[in-house]
Amino acid sequence: MEREEVKSILESLLFVADAPQSSQRFSEVLDGVDKELIREVLNELQSELDAQNRGIRLVEVAGGYQLRTTKANADWVKKFLGGRPARMGRATLETLAIIAYRQPITKAEIEAIRGVDVDGVLTTLLDRSLIRAVARKDVPGRPFLYGTTPEFLQLFNLKDLTHLPTLKEMEEITLPESAGETIPLDQAEES
Amino acid sequence: MSTHVQLEIFEGPLDLLLHLIKKNEVSITDIPIATITEQYLATLELMESLSLDVAGEFLVMAATLIHIKSRMLLPAGADEPDEDEGVDPRDELVRRLLEYQRFKEAAEQLEQREMLTRDVFVRSATPTEEVGPRGFREVSVFELLGALKRVIDRLPKDSFHEVTLEKITVREKMTLLLDRLRALGSIYFEALFDEVKSRMEVVVTFLAMLELVKVRAIRIYQEEMAGPIMIEAAAGMDEAAENAVIDEAEEEQHGT
Q1: In angstroms, what separates the C-alpha of B190 from chain A's closest C-alpha?
Q2: Domains of chain B, each with CATH number or no CATH
């Protein structure tokens, strides 16, 4: 298949996709096409849209590729779509930041950092699918441990958790696989 | 004397302390505890005088500050000779403040990123927050009462009141409501009261709706925060089940 043809097909697939798509997924659809070529073409598409200062951009987010509008046009898009996007309050943002950097983390641990009750905020974040219970901590009461979701990555335009902004004096991010003292949710439900 | 009071809404006691530390241009690691405690308590008083709810956490911190202040007044190691003299009573508080500040900054950094549905959009973007397939919100009692109040307010306010015997019962309303939902699938909360003329009928209709929710024959939901309230029949309710449901509800009413 010609390079230009691959590019054209990928552009169509990106247009119809309703969530970020991995290059692996594109390889499955375009079977027979070299995986390296697909990645090259995606990067090419990305640079082209940037270089031509286009209204849509190809971004790498939540482990995949997605077409998004350019930030410069935000006001026009908002005017066109109407409606008022829900602003995220400080309590919500702070709690989300704590969960993002410290996951997996329990409600009590979040409250110890913030110094206030986070019941309501956690409900909001769970409702918006920005966090989820990933396991239970093996301590009395077996509280839920919360972590962020792909929706969180999408909301903040993050490729993955390692791309979270680094903070001064911030310790290394511990990713969910360090869950030594935790019980996976499926097992926890049974007992 | 007119005082201009500018009260920021603090996220919690740590937030308030950070604000005071910044305002006084002092270092987190060397807090002038007497000054800060005094200002902290003054802010709490101000919040109380404005009838703002001062959450328990604020009071716990007040106690902590006073405790630290009193310990600072004691000569080091005088009372507790076993404790090593290097321990500053402020250490634990400093550690908490530094940690909280770190995440406050993290939140600010996150907010500066290109946020979906604020700065950038995707083709299938919903104009407001993303709502997943399970994203329907349960409607709270307060929202329901608010909606009910709007319906009552909309009723014509007659200067005289014609006394008519209300024939319709909650049970009949329940049947009517289920029939309507079977025909239409789902309806807006306000549409329940389209034909309703009197306050009494509004109340009867509302009670019928609550009874049906209680026995899970219908579901009340919103697709988004502050969006229209929708009512739909619960899945798998056939007529027999509906009758059973209504009988059961009736019995309970008569039982009292």
Answers
A1: 21
A2: 13-111 (no CATH), 137-255 (1.10.10)
Interface A–B counts its CB contacts (< 8 A) at 129
- C-alpha distance from A92 to closest chain B C-alpha (Å): 9
The ipTM assigned to this model is: 0.82
Band (pLDDT 50/70/90 cuts) for residue B154 is confident
pLDDT tens-digit map of B191-205: 888 877 777 888 888
Query: Is the CB of A128 less than 8 angstroms away from the CB of B129?
Result: yes
CATH number (1.10.287.180, 1.10.132.30, 1.10.10.10, 3.20.20.70) of A3-80 reads: 1.10.10.10
The pLDDT-based confidence of B79 (bands split at 50, 70, 90) is low
Sheet strand arrangement including A182-184:
A144-148, A131-137, A182-184
Specify the pLDDT at position A92.
92
d(CA A181, CA A142): 11
Which residue from A71, A81, A98 is facing B127, i.e. has the nearest CB? Answer: A81
Q: What is the pLDDT of residues B96-112, one digit of tens each?
A: 999 999 999 999 999 99
Decide if A156 and B104 are in contact by the 8 Å CB cutoff. Answer: no
Intrachain domains A3-80 and A90-190 with the same fold: yes
Mean pLDDT of chain A: 86
Query: Mean pLDDT over residues A13-31, rounded?
Result: 92
- Rounded to two decimals, the pTM is 0.63
Q: Which numeric CATH code is attached to A90-190?
A: 1.10.10.10
Q: Where are the domains of chain A?
A: 3-80, 90-190
Q: Which of A69, A84, A90 faces B121 most closely, judged by CB atoms?
A: A69
Calculate how close chain B gets to A62, using CA atoms only, in Å. 12
Q: Mutating which of B95, B114, B131 best tests the A interface, going by the most A Cβ atoms within 10 A?
A: B114
